[in-house]
Structures are given as C-alpha cells and as structure tokens.
C-alpha cells in the first residue's frame, strides 16, 4: 500500500511539472480499458459511465476496430493532395449512413477542426460572416469556435424560441445556425420537435445554413445513429468526430450536401496535415462497417438500457431537487445545488464508478453496448453515493 501511494505521488508530481492542464487531474491513473470498465494502476476496476465523453460508444477495445488497425499494412502517411482509395471508401460509407442529402466529406483530425471547417464553409458558401448558436453550448476549443458565443438563443428550445431565431436571422447576414441536435453539453437537452421544424424553415427562408454538430451525439448516442434523425429537419452540414473511430484513433469529418460543397468559393481551402490519417481511416471504416452489421441490435440495447436509467435515476433521492433527462444513453441530471454534481462525481469515483460533472450538472454517457447487470451495478453505486 505504501509503495502504491509513493508511485502515485511521484506521478502526480511529474504530471504537475510537465503537463499543461487547465485544471487538476482526477485522482485516477488509467492503465487499461475494456468494455464498460477502466482499470487503474492499482488494478482497481471502475464502471465507466463516461466513455471518454461519447468516444467509446462500442465499449473500450472493440475487437473489430482493433483488428483493422493491427492488420493495416498501408502507407504510414498520405499527403492531403494525393489520391488515397480508403479516403474515398470511408467518404462513400459516411455518405450512405449520413442523414438527409449529406454526401461530401471533408477530412479533419477531431471535433474542433470539423466544426471550424463547417463554419468556414458556411461563410464561403453564403458570403456572410455571422453565426448563431445555442447559449452556453460547446463546439470546441479554437478562437473561431469559441466566438460562437456572441449571438445565441437561450433554451428552452420550444415554439416560443422560434421568434428569437427569426429576429436573429431576418437581416440575412447569418452564415449558419449551429447546434447539437440533442445537446449533450447541456446535459442531454433535447429541443422540441416544433422548434427543430421551425428552425429548418427559418434557415431556408433567410438563406442561413443549418449545421448540426454530431461530434458527441452521433454514432448512436441518443438511440438513433444520428441525433438529427429524431427530427423532421435536414441539415446542410454535419460535424463528426469522437465515436467515428470508436475511440481507437483520432479523427473528425465534416459532411456537406452537394449543393454546399459545390458552391464553395474557388479560394476555399482547408489543409489538415493529419486529417484522415491512414490508420484512423482503417479504424473508421471498420467502425462504420460494424455499425452497418450490428447497428439495429446496438440501438435496441440503447433503448432498453435507457428505460432502466430513466426508471431508476428518477426514483433516487439526491437530497436536493434534480431534473433527470434521458435521451438514449445521453443522460443529464441537473441539480438545484451548485457544486453537488462534482461532489457526487468524487464520491462515485471512490466507490468505483466514473461519471462526468460540470457545475450543477452530472452527465452519464455509458457504452451503447453496456449490459443490464452493469447498468444496475453502476446505478446502485450512484444511489449509494447520492444518499451518503
Ligand atoms: C459537441 C462537441 N463539438 C465539438 C467538440 C470538440 O471536439 P474535439 O475535442 O475533438 O476537438 C466537442 C468536444 O467535447 C463536443 O462535445
């Protein structure tokens, strides 16, 4: 025990000395992950209800995706201007599963880059500069993406909010409206169908492109392959990342309709040195093929497990008012008490369960392949920590 404590202390010391971070690390040294579990340096097992924040949707170490990367014998790297057959294969696979008329994929390394690319494409296509987003939404970390907070629509996202959208778009100077169709970053906040239908109509009326950021909610998270499928509205551009490779390699993608892709300025360019790295492409192709073969069963599991979460979380006495939101396996619990979620997170970690927390919100994003027993065990831990 003393030796363990010493090695953790040393690591923490070196971490502080050499790693740039915006906040202190959690007290958890992860050395292995498998299915719905991660293991720390002391061999302790944790149930993972975060999955890297919507990254490991198929559970950690998905065999088919790992095998594809291990089998990979292609080039180390392909220069963006060259031809590379697997790029075309992946782009055509994505076009086949993407919602609506989305067809042309642009290559990116992750979510921020995919969103940046979408925003630049919208400016290029419309000749306009402005954007509108949802208040307090998160779409990534670049200066451009962070500037999205300037013009926003505040939830609730219902019929009444459409008047505010109309006011924001009616000057015809907005290049794009961007949102997550189910807002994972605001604790699985799902807009009303009326809002989404009206939003699509207003964007069309005022020549504003509609960008859906499916970086977190894509690849089955909300019970449909893409969260936009819950609504009767077709986006012009969709951004993907995170679960696009099931967490095995980094990647982002921005998919546009032919109309948008063909209408970009001649001088539009988006160079990404590592965008769609060959090994990432091998992982993404294996992931998409896995979804094509097993998607129905995975989504059925999402629906069944979501019912269990909804029933049990709704019955927990958290000791303060709490609103539970469940959309597939995107789950948010908003507490009345600021700081409660972070205390709960800490207690859960000590008891062997990982959850995500931000201010007054706890968020759960379990693997879409999680079984009934692990859900029950995880919620038992959560319940024990809520009332302790
Ligand atoms: C909805 C959404 N968009 C974009 C991003 C940025 O993705 P990345 O961290 O891969 O740049 C995130 C990251 O959490 C996200 O949740």
Task: Describe this entry's structure for a reader.
This protein has 388 residues and is α/β, with parallel strands linked by helices. The protein folds into 2 domains: 2-62 and 294-387, Aspartate Aminotransferase, domain 1 (Alpha-Beta Complex), CATH 3.90.1150.10; 64-291, Aspartate Aminotransferase, domain 2 (3-Layer(aba) Sandwich). Helix content is 40%, strand content 18%. It has helices at 2-18, 51-54, 63-71, 85-97, 111-126, 143-146, 161-169, 193-206, 258-262, 278-314, 340-351, 372-387, and strands spanning 30-34, 37-40, 45-48, 102-108, 130-134, 152-153, 174-179, 209-213, 237-240, 252-257, 322-327, 330-335, 353-354, 356-358, 361-364. The strands form 3 sheets. It has a 7-stranded mixed sheet, sandwiched between helices. Bound molecules: pyridoxal-5'-phosphate (PLP). Pyridoxal-5'-phosphate binds at residues 53, 110-112, 115, 138-141, 180, 185, 213, 215-216, 241.
CATH structural class of the largest domain: Alpha Beta
Look up the CATH topology of the largest domain: Aspartate Aminotransferase, domain 2
- Shape category: globular
Mean pLDDT over all positions: 96
Per DSSP, what share of the residues sits in E-state strands of 2 or more residues? 15-25%
Uncertain residue ranges:
none
User: Mind summarizing the main beta sheet?
Assistant: 7 strands, mixed
The small-molecule ligands in this entry are: pyridoxal-5'-phosphate
- Count of helical segments? 12
The strands making up the biggest β-sheet line up spatially as: 4-10-9-8-7-5-6
